[in-house]
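can u pls check wat happens w/ iron/sulfur cluster
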Amino acid sequence: MVRDDLTKVYNRQLRREMDYSYDSARPKRQIAYIFDINRCIGCQTCTIACKSTWTFGKGQEYMWWNNVESKPFGSYPQHWDIKLLAMLGPQQWDKGVYAGKTIFESAPEDEKYLGFRVKEQEWRFPNMYEDTATGHDMQGVDAAKKHGVWFHYLQRICNHCTYPACLAACPRKAIYKRDEDGIVLIDQSRCRGYRECVGACPYKKSMYRPESRTSEKCIACFPRVEKGEMPRCVVACVGKIRLQGYLTTDPRRADPNNPIDYLVHFEKVALPLYPQFGTEPNVYYLPPRWVPLEYLGQLFGPGVEEAIAKRTDPSDKLFACLRCFGMQRDVLYRFELQNGRVLAYNDKDEKVIDLALKDEPFYERPMVDKERNTLRINEP
Ligand code: SF4
Ligand code: SF4
């Protein structure tokens, strides 16, 4: 049945048109993040950096705008993805084109999206199953037979989607996407706390605050970003797995020296999370190398095998780009490799990174200092 309250838009990740509530309105440039799962140590420094900046108030106790869950069993809120995947039905890809239905296309007749409200208790225990690998007998299910022994961390924030489900669902039109950078925000003065966005967001990154009776979500640290600094979760990351920048919205104009464009549009090593939901999320992941491809295909769509192959044996330019992660706080606009050195520049075109690609000088002190007749090791 054709619905007259929906319009056709082009979803680049699905490589086809799909139904959405509004006409396509891509911003001038799109804030985007790349997370290299291979480097994450699960320390939760990002989580606490975000919590201590934005969600330490009354009514926000349960909120983790940034969370890191251990897949495949971990999830915050509990079972957020498993529930929706089960509701969505078959999700095949046909030569890179999504052949299943999105959350908009499979919406019940009188709804704008397919989704569910999270029960209060499901927001509890945000890191249940932390560091839990497959291969254990869990609740009577022998997961080892199915998956082998592995787990990986999944770093999650709001995806500042190109087609946000939260925005489509809001009856108050309180949610908007900024034209200057694609950040998705909730206008607190318009929000009446109906929680449609909470039900609609497939990633469950819009959250209700009983204290203010409004919904809230990650704001991409816009006060920092507007000054040319990356968000708190990115800069605080101990594993140096995160990079934030801007994706050129028209891939035909993508710049191979813009690190985000380079990883997403050119090398295609960074992939979106659950693209089949249909919101065109703008957080991209370098998939973990040790996880079964079948599972990763469900998480990141087509292209996982190629992405892992490139990440495992990177070209010099790809290695140079990966070296820029976590090296300083300014948003990077371009990077280059010159005479074996990685150089990167901020919005003022100032050089903010200058480091060796490989073969950084390495100094090793002799274990025995003959001059002082002593050992240079810590002895008990
Ligand atoms: S991740 Fe959810 S809350 Fe964030 S923009 Fe997308 S739909 Fe909205
Ligand atoms: S701070 Fe970085 S390394 Fe630590 S959990 Fe967060 S994303 Fe992973």
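The pocket of iron/sulfur cluster (ligand 1) is lined by residues 158-161, 164-166, 184, 201, 203, 205-206, 217, 279 (CB under 6 Å).
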